[in-house]
Write a structure and sequence with these properties.
mainly alpha
């Protein structure tokens, strides 16, 4: 059985090739077609990577000898998602800031989780700064569209220069932290060139593709797929056709419910792309909050 960490590291070549293939698609098709591809990717692999949270919680409870019934866990989970949705309705600015903070840490935690198995305080800060840099870079290279989405959600108008300063500051912070940590961490030292190359790949991707297609490629190819490998190993102790099918089967109910909810929002606001995109990201945020906490919990089990 191949080591989980080695599988994820070996996948980097696949992810780079897939990213450049996606760039080729971006050049070949107009933005409307790109957005269709993006929705398909996010609604399939993107959503399913967070659709097994209840099983992960139950497995974590079992590992910790904590006895909480499935119904009780489901109730708490649904209430958390509804609470997140209400947060976007009543205090959208706070909800959006929280979503960015949670997502930034979550992206970094998944990305460096293979190399930093027992993160220190500074390791956790690296997780956040890396994820925040990726998001800020995406925002900066699609400043006009992002500004419209933020305004639709919060009614707040962001100066487009702020994205530049945020990406610059987070990029410098991430680089300093990485260098500081790699002095004592061999895995970080050996992956320095690869990580730098990946940042260049993301810059090219975000500069070339539309906002939604850029986000979909990073979210699905660089985050969701490695996360799926992590989760399957955690639940089944192996990564094979059988365990993948078992994971998908266990995910189906929540996956279907999530897709129906998102498709309903996209249909209701189909006449206005910026509005539909705003509600789309708000829905993703509502289901992201509990997922981030679940993944953090299992990584500390």
């Amino acid at each position: 059985m191949e080591n989980k960490g080695q599988i994820i590291i070996d996948m980097s070549n696949f992810m780079v090739v897939t990213t450049f293939f996606s760039l080729w698609l971006a050049v070949q098709f107009e933005e409307f077609i790109e957005n269709i591809f993006a929705y398909v990717l996010i609604l399939s692999l993107g959503i399913i990577h967070g659709a097994n949270d209840l099983k992960l919680i139950q497995h974590s409870n079992s590992s910790r000898s904590t006895k909480i019934s499935y119904v009780r866990t489901l109730t708490y989970y649904i209430l958390f998602v509804l609470g997140s949705a209400l947060l976007f309705y009543y205090v959208p600015a706070i909800a959006l800031i929280s979503f960015v903070i949670f997502s930034a840490y979550h992206f970094g935690e998944q990305h460096f989780g293979v190399r930093i198995k027992e993160p220190t305080f500074w390791g956790n800060i690296l997780f956040f700064t890396y994820g925040f840099f990726i998001l800020c870079l995406l925002f900066y290279l699609h400043a006009e569209t992002v500004t419209e989405i933020i305004h639709t959600i919060t009614k707040i108008k962001i100066d487009e220069r702020d994205y530049y300063y945020a990406s610059l500051g987070s990029g410098i912070s991430m680089s300093v932290l990485y260098v500081f940590l790699m002095v004592r961490d061999k895995d970080l030292r050996t992956s320095f060139i690869r990580e730098t190359f990946h940042i260049v790949v993301f810059f090219i991707l975000f500069s070339t593709a539309s906002l939604l297609w850029s986000f979909a490629i990073y979210f699905v190819i660089w985050h969701s797929i490695p996360s799926l490998v992590d989760q399957i190993y955690y639940l089944y102790g192996d990564f094979s056709k059988k365990t993948v099918l078992g994971y998908v089967k266990a995910s189906l109910p929540y996956w279907v419910i999530s897709i129906i909810g998102i498709l309903f929002l996209l249909f209701v606001f189909r006449s206005n792309f910026e509005t539909s995109l705003s509600f789309f990201f708000s829905f993703l945020a509502a289901i992201t909050f509990p997922h981030v906490l679940v993944i953090n919990r299992i990584k500390n089990t």
